[in-house]
Amino acid sequence: MTDGWHWHQPDGTATPATSPPSARPPVTPHDAGSPWWSDALGDPWRDPRAPAAVVLPTPPSPGAAPEPVTDPDAVPRRGMTSVLFIAMFSALLAGALGGSLGYALAVRGGIGGTVLGGDPGEAPAAAQRPPDSLAGVAERVAPSVVTVRAATKGGSSIGSGFVASADGYVITNDHVVEGATGGATVVFNDGSTASGSIVGHDAESDIAVIKVSRPNLVPVEFGDSEAIAVGDPVLAFGSPLALANTVTAGIVSALDRTIQSGEPGGQVRYYAAIQTDAAVNQGNSGGPLVDGGGRVVGVNSVIKSLAVDEQQAGNIGLAFAIPINQAKRVAQDIIDTGKARRTVIGAQVDSSGRNPGGGARLGAVDPGGPAAAAGIRAGDVITKLDGRPVEEGTDLIALVRKYAPGAVVTIEYRRGNSKQTASVTLAADAK
Question: Which pLDDT belongs to residue 323?
Fold first, then answer.
């Protein structure tokens, strides 16, 4: 049994547990003058690991400086080098962050760096537009488009036109030069001008030809007005409201739209027009209507408007152009002979009223004329011409005007209750 200090063998002899204990001074009972701890080493309950004596610090000598007191929880102080390094590093970091933030706010549009739109790159020049784009077509056709000014007794007239040949022939509308007291002034797209003489004009077809003397003219390319279809894209060129070098875009919105125009008491014009929704206004008259390939397919001539006064009329998306096949033929006649041939069927339309079943009733047929030669008689009602419906007399006149003299067309007509068909060879008017 052990108490932690000594271990006794069974025979009662004391044997050290490890090594002999160090000699201890004799324990003497303390007296009244000895401290209470003077016999502590002899205490049997003493912790052997406790100090052998209580050591009291030596009191400071008089006049000595007090021992500094250190707070164990205080952060140790760094040297001035460390402080300066930290300050410099903080300043550099703050400058870098401030510069980056300023760049984001001033250049990139915000803290998040959001940029609206992509890199625009280099803007393409007009010459770089694809030739078949609207801009490419406009660039190619514009040098051939002109503004036409003519002096009249009532003042002046302004319209548009286009160069039809390299030797200076310009096509425009008859009503642009109607009543001109002299020649006409032609203004090109670069602003230069040239004096022109009026070669001739045809009031009924509304086509006129002007001749100018100018080198390096660029004529238009002609298309085929019979090859276009509803929905095809088109561009209208001209000087609407005296605004030169104007281009508007639209589509072909109808074909063979019968147009009967002219001033009251004056010449009545008939043609089966190309209808378009391209913006056309006063001053566009005589300018070209071109297809998506830049080929002229019509001559802008008439607009529809809700205004009663023609001077107040404006575009409402309904404009009409003379088919280029007809305009080109008439212009060629004027250039060659000074006047245009008019295509006729050799019959007069009864305009006393509409027929209940539609169609154009013939009031008279010229003996020996195209209609009489095909067996058509007065009183017959023509309902179709080459498959195109004829609703009234003006439709028949306008459709006949589309064709050149000598063209063969198929006529469908009613005689009483029977329907018949005939082939008619159209002729030129004897005038």
Answer: 97
